[in-house]
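Cross-check.
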Amino acid sequence: MRPLLVSLLLLSASVAGATEARDFVIGGQIISFADTGATPVSWTSCEAACDDGDSRRAQWFSEADGALRWVVPGSTQATELLHSMEYAFTVNELPDATEIKLRSRLSFDDVAVNIVYRVSHSDHTVAVSYTAPVKLKLQLATGAALVPEQLPGFGAIYSTVRAANFFDGDQDYLVPDAEQPELTAQVSAEAWFGVRNRYWLWYMQPAVAAAATVSLPQANRPVATLEVPDAGLVLYAGPTELGALRAGSPELSGVLFAAIWDWLRALSFGLMYLLQWLYGLVGNYGFAIILLSLSVKILMYPLTTIADRWQSQVNAITSSMKPKLDEIKRQYKGEEAHNKVLEVYKEHKVTPFYTLRSLFGFLIQIPVFIAAFDMLAENFVLGGASFLWVADLAKPDHVFALPFALPFFGGWVNLLPFLMTALTILSAIVQEEADLTPDLMRQQRIKLFLMAGAFFLLFYTFPAGMVLYWTANNLFHLLKILPARLRAPRQAG
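Predicted model, tokenized:
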């Protein structure tokens, strides 16, 4: 048998020049081939059927930017020659898929290179297989079109394109750096490996365990390479939308909310179903998010009522003990002061940990907060959804551009974070706690002001849908406490 490289060199001499690309629009994929080369020259995935002009889409690579390539291990020259060969096309229409077969026009050593792409009609999967004299790898280098808008500040976490190895609900991101410019991973037959951004996924599942590598030649431009076994692989190229993921493969739904615990994931899915139901009622995702915030408050009302009662009890005890504790602080030091404080606690029949009861209201909100924000951050349907002045709920609500870019905040004024913060500050001013002394009430307001500032910094560059949810939450809290404040002067009179 002649060496593969010599055979390819002989073949390359007889290859004709490239002609027009062949474009295939199949289900949720648009794939283009040239006469030369064993892989498509461009690939775009659509939210639904690509013949629907309104369907959202993502371009994985194009002829001028990025690539999908078969790689001959250990031989760059052989790889280049493999992609310079001319191929004959055969297209077979099957009941559930379109099969695109590529066969090298000339064979060597009685072996032709055959590559098959079987593109599903009903979901976003493509089965890939080949026969060749050597083992091959499939390499994806994503194009710039896949890189989301780069958000400043903490919003940058939603602007990344990363490679990952996904197995049994765990998504292990592979991020090369200066110390490790190339990372390796072992991908089992039950695992998926590939590249994703916030809303789009290109994951490959080998028929048997295979080795994978990831490099990062440019920021947000990972290059993912996977050994392709003789039995081939299945790839999913499509949106991170629950129905599409499940249609591709049931376990792929695990990529949603994969960063949180299973019980929180269940809560996120519940909130996602509730949001979709509310959207069916009002027909707008912005109003649906506001109603979602209200629904969560109503559902949590029994628990928050208990938390409010416990908070009032803690406030009453704290206020009654404060004069004595202040006096002890002025007159005693060290161990003597500590003993005096314990006597005050004993007198009021509480332990030094009695204030922990006031944390209940905060603690019961944390899981819901995390679940809601993960759901709103990863919910595909919010991409491109508008609301009032917000053009896209998946991005910050840019109101107008600044003549310059501020560090951390960027070059836009976002209105929703200001509304959210104003409502928090207004609630802190309006809220009165009858059980608190003026000094304690002032301290509580200062804490609320600091919290408002912290949330402003955190949320300023976050997607508008997430900020809208918390703004609505603050509005409903204000409406809850406002009637009591308005009644207070009349009661005092």
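Residues 14 and 284 are 59 Å apart (CA to CA). Residues 1-19 have pLDDT under 50 and may be disordered. Passed to J.P. for a second look.
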